[in-house]
Amino acid sequence: MFSGFLGQFRPVTTQTTKENEPETTQKPPESQKSNDSESFLSSAKTKTFIKKWSQKTRDGKSLYTKRGVVGLLKTLFQNPGLESDSDVLGTAEELLSMLGGMDGLSGFLMGWKAKSEGIIKGLKSVVGAE
């Protein structure tokens, strides 16, 4: 009786056929990584990205040089964790926006600094007045 019960849990063996084999699908072209950095840098998306970021200005001064943006992209392209060209461009955009202070965090923190300094000055004036 017990052996019959255990027999129900016996692994079922199946034969693999062409119908049961998982299909090897190719990734869409936008989610593939270029073969080398030169072909990556010569793609239309990358050229547009480089032009966009090398022309960003603050107070009339250019934030990044074209050479700097290209250097960053070459370095990020070598990272094996970034599996596609769009991953490389997304990571580069995130880094450049943080470096340029365009991510909004620095403005947010500056606001908090001003508020905290105002609170401290107010408390000092109240405590000093007594």
Please describe what this structure looks like:
This protein has six helices and two strands. It is mainly alpha-helical and 130 residues long. The protein has a two-stranded antiparallel sheet with strand order 1-2. The chain is flat and about 70 Å long. The N and C termini lie far apart (90 Å). 9% of the residues are buried. The mean pLDDT is 76.
Write the layout of secondary structure elements.
Layout (H helix, E strand, L loop, with lengths): L1 H6 L29 H5 L2 H11 L2 E2 L2 E2 L3 H12 L7 H15 L5 H25 L1
Antiparallel strand pairs: 1-2
Short description:
The protein has 6 helices and 2 strands. By secondary structure, the protein is mainly α.
Q: End-to-end distance, in Å? A: 90 Å
Task: Indicate the structural class.
Answer: mainly alpha
Which sequence of SSEs, written as H and E, runs from N to C? HHHEEHHH
Helix % is: 55-70%
In round numbers, the mean pLDDT is 76
- Give the percentage of residues in beta strands: under 5%
Shape: flat
**Main sheet: which strands, in order across?**
1-2
Main pleated-sheet profile? 2 strands, antiparallel
Poorly predicted parts: none
Our count of helices gives 6
Number of strands: 2
Radius of gyration: 28 Å
What structural keywords apply?
130 residues, mainly alpha, two-stranded antiparallel ribbon, 6 helices, 2 strands, 57% helix, 3% strand, flat
